[in-house]
Design brief:
Blueprint: H1 4-17, H2 27-39, E1 44-46, E2 52-55, E3 60-70, E4 75-81, E5 87-92, E6 104-108, E7 114-120, E8 143-146, H3 153-158, E9 166-169, E10 174-175, E11 180-183, H4 186-204, E12 211-218, E13 235-241, E14 244-245, E15 257-263, E16 266-267, H5 270-283, E17 287-291, H6 298-304, E18 310-318, E19 325-328, H7 329-343
Parallel strand pairs: 3-12, 3-13, 13-18, 14-18, 15-17
Antiparallel strand pairs: 1-2, 2-12, 4-5, 4-9, 6-7, 6-9, 7-8, 10-11, 11-19, 15-16, 15-18
Helix pairs in contact: 1-4, 1-7, 4-7, 5-7
């Protein structure tokens, strides 16, 4: 596979990551994804739930494959406007508070206005706070300090900010000269971009796969029901293309693709995992097979919803998941190669 599909995938990742889409606030990102797939020439629609369903073509619709990625991310929601004009937040998905101090955010109001702010402790200056080092960093203590002159709850409400408004973190995307991709929300926007890469490969080479291939870009993965619906008729196998875990006890690095044999939901289909390994070997992909201690994927949600399918999970290695994440262009290439081999392209 030509490296141009890696470059294209990374370009698409940067564009998608720039569109804020915490889980529950995904319509703008979904509309962008829908348009881009249509521009590539693939029949695409928005589901009732707000996901994006793409027909990637293929001959045998009675033995179809469903690829699953997700564009929703972790984030936060305004839970209380404090008397001093600062905002208490509630997490959306698995966003952990201790690593958020000093992060810039955008607050989206229902009227369409957007305000910036920073997540801080109530008394964040080391020149003032006696107990700065020992202060608790939690959702009870961290607050959003708006970049507006607000001194009271009423001042904030005059801006149009209310409880339930969305708080999105600045992703801070960067691509290093050595090929490392650093950003929040590589989980799972990097793999959405990889799906764009495989779609463009199919289009450019006028490939008609033997098996029908569907792609579902889901929007509620981060809270556990992203792929619980919208499974097309004839699908017999589902593959989550998410992030590969990098950490102690695992073999995958950012430069490889991880094939999950098991996670906290149990083992993946032995036959599907074997097919993924065979596809990786056939294409010469650098891969690792890992057992994840803490993970749940879209395709497991599909199984729990009662669909009779085989299931698997792959993804480029991602370091520091649900924090400021890091992957590598080689991991993108290796994921593309596994998909090429597994899908028979």
């Amino acid at each position: 596979m030509d490296r141009k599909y890696v470059e294209y995938s990374v370009e698409m990742a940067e564009k998608l990551i720039a569109i804020d889409s915490p889980t529950g606030y995904t319509a703008k990102a979904a509309a962008w994804v829908e348009k881009e797939f249509k521009d590539l020439g693939f029949p695409t629609r928005i589901t009732n739930k707000g996901g994006v369903l793409v027909d990637l073509g293929g001959e045998d619709s009675s033995d179809a494959i469903l690829l699953m990625t997700h564009l929703d991310t972790i984030g936060a929601m305004v839970a209380e406007i404090k008397a001093n004009g600062r905002l208490r937040m509630s997490p959306l998905g698995g966003l952990h508070a201790p690593g958020l101090e000093g992060e810039n955010v955008r607050v989206y109001t229902r009227s369409g206005k957007v305000y910036t702010g920073t997540i801080q402790l109530p008394n964040p200056s080391v020149h003032v706070a006696d107990e700065y080092d020992k202060a608790e960093r939690s959702w009870k203590t961290l607050e959003c300090v708006l970049d507006e002159t607000v001194l009271s709850k009423e001042d904030v409400r005059k801006l149009g900010i209310e409880n339930g408004d969305i708080v999105a973190l600045d992703p801070k995307f960067t691509l290093t000269p050595s090929g490392y991709i650093k950003s929040r929300f590589l989980d799972d926007k990097l793999s959405v971009a990889i799906a764009f890469g495989i779609a463009k490969y199919i289009q450019d080479n006028k490939i008609v796969p033997k098996r029908k291939i569907w792609l579902h870009v889901t929007v509620y993965e981060e809270i556990g029901h992203g792929a619980s619906a919208s499974v097309p008729e004839g699908v017999t196998e589902g593959l989550s293309v998410d992030m590969g875990c990098v950490g102690e006890g695992l073999e995958c690095t950012e430069r490889e693709v991880s094939i999950a044999a098991k996670d906290s939901g149990g083992p993946y289909s032995y036959e599907t995992v074997s097919a993924l390994i065979e596809g990786a070997r056939r294409e010469g992909a650098e891969y690792r097979v890992d057992v994840y201690p803490h993970y749940g994927s879209d395709v497991e949600t599909t199984l729990r919803s009662g669909y009779d399918i085989r299931h698997g999970l792959i993804g480029p290695g991602v370091f520091a998941s649900h924090s400021y994440e890091r992957s590598h262009v080689d991991g993108v290439m290796n994921t593309l190669l596994v998909l090429k081999g597994y899908l028979g392209l």
